[in-house]
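Hey, can you fold this one?
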Amino acid sequence: MNLHFRLLLTIFRALFKSKISDFEKTSENFTVLPTDGHIPLFKSMCGGRYFGFMDLGRVDQVTRLGVLQIMKGKSLGIMIGGQSIVYRKPLKVFRSFTLSTEIVSWDEKFFYVRQVFRQRENICAIGFVQATFRGKDGIYSPKKLIADIGIPDRDLEQNDGVTDWLRFRDGILEEIDRA
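Sure. Predicted structure:
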């Protein structure tokens, strides 16, 4: 199934799910189809497809938070600052899986999102995303967006996972700058 169709389906379903009023963990169920693999011989989802499903998980969350309406009203787009994933087990074709999405932290520019793929209760992959919202005047800060949603602002401690990932990302950026 084409991810564009799944995107429309995700938005449609999110509109009828319960709204979330805080940065709760959300979950979305999908099924791995043969078109999600490299070739039928592998019988599992290809690595690059995980990132597309991660997009769908975040779309479900921002829709249920009411951010989609804010994005439309303020002409904001989502910009990814970086993302990585660690694979543990393959997601098998014709089996359903659950993708959970959780905003674990934010700073002055970015939200940090952890996404976990599970199939039959086994963790198959964990992804980490640094994302922000951008409008015609530049980055729309997480604090502004949090205020627009109506969620009480609070400081989340940057957990070890965020700190480690940022250190990893900074190392890659330094390597790019040296090249």
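Strands lie at 26-31, 77-87, 96-106, 111-119, 122-135, 138-140. Let me know if you want another pass with a different chain boundary.
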